Structure to design on (395 residues):
């Protein structure tokens, strides 16, 4: 039940965000799947093996990156049509907001903690994407070219 | 003359892509490709999020363009990409490409505003449930209303003022005011959860991540500019919300 809620909510939230940033109509569905794959990777890891926030974000971004590259190749569209909306559940937007709010309210210690978390999580996601690119490149060189 | 039109076309393609939030390496790549396919093998491209240059190694001709607004519009990125592929395949001439790019710049359809507002409401409510990690059903309607209204205020002001800082402050203020009011009259419970959900359509999470990706890819200038923009917009949202927390 919980899995169904998490999956359907991440899918729908991603599609909704994709509408805001004007993703073309026929790519909305796949963008939603990218968001679902990323969030389920993150959430699944967080509730089962507790790998820590950074590693879970990194693996979530890796999953989004690989899925998005596959979608992009299949649909012949730029890969960011899927990565940007797909990232929305993972991205540290809420944490950035909490950091600034703590700062404005004078809670400096909390603000510092949140700022560090924003940078670490954003860095983890960026590294996850780089790994996805690396994996795709290696697959392209070995598997696809060998055919 | 032909060379001048080629460089102008490259520049226009690059400008549309940067304005629509494409990754910098892709912008460079597309511009170089168009130049190459148009017969200019030695094009030199320099792009930043606030302006871009293109020139040729073999001639003194250099064109530059400025970029004043930076939004996210995936449809434009996709259309420019599709056009550049068609040009590469020889399916359209340089002149047709130029005309088509002007068309993309001027009138690419977006989803109607009401649908965007509904989408912002849905996005706010659902992400609130995901982030709260407890099934907070009672706060769902209030988060949706606050998120939708906040996004509408942001979108409306953005069209009027063209200063993103002000529209972000106003959007966040509307979110926080509605959330506070709703909790006060008893239709919401957790003010924190509601606000975190409802600011999600406004927060620059994607911009922060993209700026770090740009920097890791070696585009230091774009990374800094986009990061700074993200920090400013996060600060604006924090200010908008803090006004409510401070006085009530």
């Amino acid at each position: 039940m919980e899995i169904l809620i998490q999956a359907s909510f991440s899918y729908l939230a991603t599609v909704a965000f994709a509408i805001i940033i004007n993703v073309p109509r026929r790519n909305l569905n796949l963008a939603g799947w990218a968001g679902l794959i990323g969030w389920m990777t993150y959430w699944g890891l967080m509730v089962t093996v507790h790998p820590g926030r950074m590693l879970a974000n990194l693996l979530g971004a890796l999953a989004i990156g690989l899925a998005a590259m596959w979608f992009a190749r299949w649909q012949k569209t730029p890969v960011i049509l899927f990565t940007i909306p797909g990232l929305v559940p993972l991205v540290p937007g809420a944490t950035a907001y909490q950091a600034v709010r703590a700062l404005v309210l004078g809670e400096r210690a909390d603000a510092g903690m949140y700022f560090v978390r924003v940078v670490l999580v954003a860095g983890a996601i960026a590294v996850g994407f780089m790994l996805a690119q690396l994996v795709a490149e290696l697959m392209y060189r070995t598997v696809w070219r060998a055919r | 003359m032909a060379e001048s039109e080629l460089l102008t076309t490259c520049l226009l393609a690059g400008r549309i892509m940067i304005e629509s939030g494409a990754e910098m390496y892709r912008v460079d790549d597309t511009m170089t490709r168009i130049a190459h396919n148009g017969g200019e093998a030695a094009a030199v491209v320099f792009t930043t999020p606030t302006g871009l240059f293109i020139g040729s190694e073999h001639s003194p001709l250099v064109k530059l363009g400025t970029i004043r607004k930076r939004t996210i519009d995936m449809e434009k990125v996709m259309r420019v990409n599709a056009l550049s592929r068609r040009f590469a395949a020889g399916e359209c001439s340089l002149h047709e490409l130029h005309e088509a790019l002007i068309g993309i710049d001027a009138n690419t359809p977006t989803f109607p505003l009401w649908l965007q507002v509904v989408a912002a409401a849905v996005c706010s409510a659902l992400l609130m449930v995901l982030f709260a990690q407890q099934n907070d059903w009672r706060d769902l309607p209030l988060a949706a209303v606050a998120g939708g209204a906040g996004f509408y205020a942001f979108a409306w002001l953005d069209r009027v003022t063209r200063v993103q800082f002000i529209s972000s402050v106003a959007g966040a203020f509307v979110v926080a005011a509605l959330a506070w009011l709703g909790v006060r009259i008893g239709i919401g419970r957790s003010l924190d959860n509601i606000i975190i959900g409802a600011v999600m359509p406004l927060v620059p999470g994607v911009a922060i991540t993209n700026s770090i990706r740009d920097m890791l890819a070696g585009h230091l200038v774009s990374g800094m500019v986009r990061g700074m923009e993200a920090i400013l917009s996060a600060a604006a949202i924090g200010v908008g919300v803090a006004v409510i927390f401070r006085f009530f």
Chain A touches chain B through 50 residues (CB under 8 Å). The first helix of chain A runs from residue 2 to 20. The two ends of chain A are 42 Å apart (CA to CA).
